[in-house]
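2024-03-11 09:14:02 DEBUG pipeline.ingest accepted 1 chain
2024-03-11 09:14:02 DEBUG pipeline.ingest length=168
2024-03-11 09:14:03 DEBUG pipeline.predict start
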Amino acid sequence: QNVEAVLGSEYEDTKIEALLKQLQDLYSKYKVLEVRLTQNRGNLKNKLPEIKKTLEQVTLLSSKKGGDPISTHFELSDSVYANAEIKDVDSVCLWLGANVMLEYSFEEALGLLTRNLSTATTNLKTVEEDLAFLKDQITTTEVNIARVYNYDVKKRRREAQSKAIASS
């Protein structure tokens, strides 16, 4: 992009400073948004394996419904496990977050987990696309900042040379 065309043919320090400030503000906004999107992507990447694991477990319990009891061990807290025997069950309890657990039938739980998995996968794809676009915008803004700054430096040098020639 031609910096002189953007600023106009007349050189004004205030125009250059205003443009640089505007570009740097835009750059700062992009960086804040990038941090937020990166955090969202990390959260989604952590949730996906949990949802898949829960879906597999509910599917397993659903397939064993009415069959032999299942012996398992489950986590009570960090590094503390307990053994249990699961007999014929008709429902499962799922953590929804914020210390809330609800009981669902197997069909409801499978439907909910499938929807959650689909939503999380879609959201992850969207966040990654947004991040790719944002990185392009950040790069473009960095290049524009450099172009405006370099234009200002060249213009000042030309003015200094003109003054030196005129004074000699």
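2024-03-11 09:14:41 DEBUG pipeline.report The first helix runs from residue 3 to 7.
2024-03-11 09:14:41 DEBUG pipeline.predict end
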